[in-house]
Amino acid sequence: MSNRFILLLFAVIIGVNVFAQETEDGITEELVRQIAETENEATLVKEASAFMQEGYLYFSEILVDKLLEYNAESPNYNYRKGFLMLKIRKDYDGAKKYLEKAIVDVDPNYDAYSPREKRAPTDAFYHLGQCYHLDEDVTKAHEMYSKFIEISKSSSELIPVAKMNLQQCNVARYALSNPKDIFLKNIGPAINTVDPEYSPVISLDGGSLYFTSRRPWPKNETEKLRDPAINQYPEDIYVSYLNFEDSTWTAPEKLDFCQPVRNEATIAISSDERKIYVYMDSTGYGDIYFTDFYHAKFNTIEAMSIPKLNTQYWETHSMMTHDQKSLYFVSDRPGGYGGRDIYVVHRQENGSWSEPMNLGPKINGPFDEDSPFISIDNKTLYYATNGEKSMGGFDIMRSDLQSDGNWSEGMNLGYPINSTNDDAFYTTTIDGRRGYMTSFREGGYGEKDIYEIYNDYLGVKDLAVLKGIVKTVDDKPIPEDFAINVKLVCVDCDESANNKLVYPRLRDGIFMTGLEPCKTYRLEYKNVTDELELGNESFTTLCDTAYQEIYKELLLDVDKKMLIFPEDTLELDTVSVTSYPNLEFIHYFAYNKNKLNVKRGKLKQFVKDIEGQLDGGREKITINVYSSASNVPTKTYDTNEKLTKLRAENMKYDLIQHFENNDQYKGRVNVVIVTALVQGPDYTGDYRDKEKYFPYQYVGLKTE
Hints:
Blueprint: H1 3-12, H2 29-38, H3 41-54, H4 57-70, H5 75-89, H6 92-102, H7 123-134, H8 138-151, H9 159-177, E1 183-186, E2 197-202, E3 208-213, E4 236-243, E5 248-249, E6 253-254, E7 265-269, E8 275-280, E9 287-294, E10 297-298, E11 302-303, E12 315-320, E13 326-331, E14 341-346, E15 357-358, E16 369-374, E17 380-385, E18 395-400, E19 411-412, E20 423-428, E21 434-439, E22 449-454, E23 463-472, E24 482-489, E25 500-502, E26 510-515, E27 520-527, E28 532-540, E29 547-557, E30 562-564, E31 584-588, H10 601-615, E32 621-629, H11 640-660, E33 669-678, H12 690-693, E34 698-703
Parallel strand pairs: 23-29, 32-33
Antiparallel strand pairs: 1-22, 2-3, 3-4, 4-5, 4-6, 7-8, 8-9, 9-10, 9-11, 12-13, 13-14, 14-15, 16-17, 17-18, 18-19, 20-21, 21-22, 23-26, 24-25, 24-27, 27-28, 29-30, 31-34, 32-34
Helix pairs in contact: 2-4, 3-4, 4-5, 5-6, 5-7, 6-7, 7-8, 8-9
């Protein structure tokens, strides 16, 4: 901070109450606003630049707003305002109008501290290109980036970034023209607010969502702790639970270990939700921490003790594989390929950890990689990159583990999962078909929101899943040391090396883990502390199916330390395998059409397939409804929003009526409207172009 500004603050600090965020120098928003009203234009130019250089962007913007009152057409002042709007809030739409004024007159020798400077720096072209890029106008973005490269000094640090952005424009142009067939929706106001919500972590069964939010505490405990750089509240970790009956999320609960004076951000959770991995910056470097759940609460946050994991450099994210044998993490330590890279450490047979290994150039590049997530099969890696494979900002990529132990070249998941803005922190449920991510895109509630994704092509393959629930006599709490020892029974192998302890979730007794197909397993139910075995059973997973589920239900008598198997359950040595494939249906409507008949065509067959699963032993089934309307105007229904909702509601009503009118299926089918969207290209009067708008006029159904 400049000496001139510090002296100026000491002159006015007497009598001023601190009510908002405060810098290390004791500078508050109140003081900055007072300076804005009392100092002349030349002083404000210098101090706005000093704030920007020190990273206090929000304070700088207060002074820039005052400078625009002096001269609303100044390219210099308009550049500052547009730049700050983009950096603080990512308000690319609002920043555009300022940066468009800035590029009218630019100077390669721009002097930010000179009160006589009227022009803008050539960087204005780069940042305007960013605005167009974020707005998916890749043609104009390409033009602005190219102009910036042409007129800027070759020494500019933004030149290589602009060249990379040109490559991203090419990726975006292709992706926007070739959208993937997925369903994506904002998870809604139960989770998202006007403040940022991000880094979602979904439980394997999809019933718990842990995430980070910068929302204020209810009693204003964090009001004085907002970040002076961006005017946002500290990070805290929340959890919300899904009501499976109506697919709604409960009001988020802040976890008890969160403190108002520090930032805690979600990274990952263990399969049993008894361990949360946390990112914190309490040491001056970003490091990876964890907290364990015992005695009915999450406890003290501790730094991970794996050697060479946390360093003097920046470690931002990690993911422990579900078999507990490998930890993937992110670091910007020297020796990588540039920026932040993804590394892995493996657990050795003696329990120690290997040296960190970089995942190599097929994953890491010269820019940043972040937020690794490993699916239940331990063979599928999702991560984010902001390099040349991205459409813009961070994009979510997928890589598969090859037979030689190396990861395949990262593949962009495409549009609309990815956008030209930041898309990251992708996690999935156990089958890989439902995912959650962070994105900042049009139609959101705040600067970052959490989105839900349904897909048909990213699910895990060649996998068996053990799912079950432990109930207790008299609904007593499940002992924390009760676990299932899952043993792979095999010939000529060290069975002990293939054992894994699976703990039930203490909240509701649910447990799950991944298994290999075509293998024999033995389950040993035990108290870990005293090594007391309460029961056991064996089964063999199927060999000829891509995905299967083995379901177990247990009743535990806590006082007697014994398992009770109800009389109507299968014998312990009987294979219990249930596998119901997801059913899918989609119909594309003609203009203004909105209703189908459940007794005709492909919808009739879809309904028959559902009835077949119910007749075959499936107790209940949920049908998710996804509807869409294009942007072609409709006079019949006033708005396309009404049309898409009508399509969804008609479908829901007809399905419910069909199943509820049949005593055999009554009460066994739940129908949920997941999305009712208006989407597709903007209407340009070309309603006859059916190929252009037809893909966005549909109703889709999917079971789960």
